[in-house]
Specification:
heterodimer, A: 2 domains, 11 helices, B: mainly alpha, 2 strands, about 0% strand
Chain lengths: ~280, ~325
């Protein structure tokens, strides 16, 4: 081997090793974060953690039952608003979105996907908190729904596009009207994928904090009224982690572990739905 | 011929025609909620920011007094902090994310691809506030004990490492941002690299290129526009990221070159101060910060999307991670 060829081979080797090393550094970050979460969080989780509301600052004990229920309600209402709109927009993009208007909607959806969630929180505040004069869980749900719509639109579109054209043509040839073909044949065939998209979207908004800061606000007590301030796990973690008490820090870790677990379970469920539906194709 | 006498249009068919139209208009209306939304957000922010816009004019962008008592506001420190933390994050994240993408598409054995891609995707699933918590209790103590002392020993004479490191700082904020944007950049870059035709690699290898040379001279240039798009997309994420940064950057209205000093970002300012902004002008100033942030991220995202679409036309690239 000449010197030049040798040098080229060494460069290739060095770069390969470098690429692998950097890749594993990125994965290492994940392992470290999850590892810390489990180590520091698991020791603080007991039964009271899930069943009790927080105790006054400085006292030990108490739980985050109100926050767990609050996250469930806020995210649930957000999904009720966001899923029909997001999925509808996605079906539009797949069925009628080939023209210039479709291009515009697609582009805007992609751009909105990267919008800072705190700005969406401001919008929720302006439309609901400001006119009504008090903070409310509903404002938080609206903000989260807005976050969800563009994401759902794009994933739904992709899933509906996977449905083979022959299915659609078969239904139309049998005299099915277009709207029934679209809903009963195309959307139903893509249902697994659409559900997956919805679950991924829900997993993402479940962890959001910024849009809830001045909409749902947080609440030390147990509340299920959507027009009143409500606690959410993410808000609780923020307060506990930045607070001064050792006991709060412990609860912050535990709440973070629960929130992460929740997000993970929904994400894994999403994967499972896809696998059920498409088997080994995907 | 049957074409001479067209089928009589039965009432059911006519009915179907009408319901088709209704179905289509309904979907169209829903879809147009999206462009409508962007206009509404922009309108809301603009109207609410109007008092501050009128009072301070363009000097809002480059003055740095932020005094709610005297009602004088200037956003320069936040704008500086937003860009400084995002650039620091890109500096760290881009090599990591591109490596992940290159590894997954070019070097990885087949059996390892799925698990590594899944783990990196998982990084994107971690909520921002969890990153912040980890940053406060793990990252900052680690930086204080193992990273800052050696850095100061070697580069302590530069303006970037002046002052005492208390923890919450531009450095901590930038590092947490970097970890957070790696999955986004990696996911999009990976899809861009997957869109590069195999023939490009084969051609380079057939010319006698080593594996790395094939990547560097054939694969990367082919996907260049998309890769730049991926990086800009990561930048857009970093500019608007709120919670983790708020928890780590120190939240001080001050422009300091040193990475060890606390700083502020636009998103963090809104998160911290919005609910305590009692006067109209204070609120309006924060709305203007929101307006600047929104316009900035929309512009950055639009550029990124155009670049990515040039490579992977119209595909919802990286949508799984986003």
């Amino acid at each position: 081997m000449t010197g030049r060829a040798l040098r080229r081979h060494i460069t290739s080797r060095v770069m390969t090793v470098l690429v692998i090393a950097l890749s594993f550094t990125a994965v290492l970050a994940l392992v470290l974060i999850l590892g810390n979460l489990v180590l520091k969080g698991a020791s603080s989780i007991d039964w009271a953690f899930f069943t009790k509301s927080p105790v006054p600052a400085g006292q030990s004990g108490g739980g985050v039952a109100n926050a767990i229920v609050g996250t469930g309600i806020i995210v649930g209402v957000a999904a009720l608003i966001g899923v029909p709109l997001g999925v509808g927009a996605g079906i539009y993009l797949a069925e009628y979105g080939s023209g210039r208007l479709g291009f515009l909607v697609r582009f805007v959806a992609d751009v909105l996907n990267g919008t800072p969630s705190i700005v969406i929180g401001i919008v929720g505040w302006t439309f609901i908190v400001k006119p009504s004069g008090h903070f409310s869980a509903l404002a938080g749900s609206v903000a989260l729904a807005i976050l969800m719509i563009p994401m759902l639109a794009r994933t739904t579109e992709e899933m509906v596009r996977l449905v083979p054209h022959s299915l659609r043509e078969a239904a139309l040839a049998l005299g099915y009207p277009r709207w029934r073909t679209s809903l009963k044949i195309v959307a139903r065939t893509a249902l697994g994928g659409i559900v997956t998209g919805c679950l991924v979207g829900i997993a993402r908004i479940a962890g959001e904090t910024a849009p809830l800061l001045f909409t749902a606000l947080g609440n030390l007590n147990f509340s299920v009224h959507v027009t009143q301030p409500m606690q959410a796990l993410s808000l609780q973690i923020y307060v506990y982690a930045t607070g001064p008490f050792e006991d709060w820090h412990r609860l912050a870790w535990a709440s973070a572990l629960v929130l992460m677990g929740l997000v993970l379970i929904i994400s894994l469920l999403a994967r499972w739905v896809t696998r059920q539906r498409y088997g080994s194709i995907r | 011929m049957s074409s001479a006498s067209p089928l009589p249009r039965s009432p059911t068919l006519l009915g179907a025609d009408r319901s088709d139209r209704i179905y289509r208009s309904l979907l169209t209306a829903i879809a147009f909620a999206l462009p409508g939304l962007i206009v509404i957000i922009l309108g809301v922010l603009f109207i609410e920011a109007l008092p501050a816009l009128k009072r301070f004019g363009p000097s809002f962008l480059w003055t740095s007094t932020w005094d709610p008592v005297a009602e004088v506001y200037g956003a320069a420190p936040m704008i500086f902090g937003t860009f400084a933390s995002s650039l620091l994050a890109l500096l760290i994240a881009v090599p990591l994310a591109l490596s992940v993408a290159i590894f997954l598409t070019e070097f990885s054995p087949r059996w390892l691809r799925q698990p590594v891609a899944f783990l990196v995707e998982l990084l994107a699933a971690i909520p921002s506030v969890v990153y912040g918590t980890w940053g406060i209790f793990v990252l900052i103590p680690f930086l204080r004990a193992h990273v800052v002392p050696p850095l100061k020993a070697v580069f302590g004479w530069t303006p970037f490492l002046q002052g005492v490191f208390y923890g919450n700082s531009l450095l901590a904020g930038g590092i947490i941002l970097a970890i957070m944007i790696v999955p986004y950049i990696a996911a999009v870059s990976r899809e861009v690299l997957l869109a590069v035709p195999t023939s490009q690699r084969e051609a380079a290898l057939a010319m006698g290129a080593t594996r790395w040379e094939a990547v560097r001279s054939a694969v990367l240039p082919y996907g260049r526009a998309g890769l730049i798009g991926a990086v800009i997309l990561g930048l857009g994420r970093a500019l608007g990221e709120t919670m983790a940064v708020t928890m780590l950057i120190g939240n001080r209205h001050d422009i300091a070159l040193s990475l060890l000093q606390p700083a502020y970002t636009m998103a963090a300012a809104i998160a911290n101060e919005f609910s305590e902004a009692t006067t109209g002008m204070y609120q309006s100033a924060l709305m203007e910060v929101g307006l600047i942030l929104f316009v900035l991220t929309v512009a950055v995202n639009a550029v990124a999307r155009i670049l990515i679409w040039r490579v992977a036309r119209g595909a919802a690239v990286g949508s799984k991670a986003l």
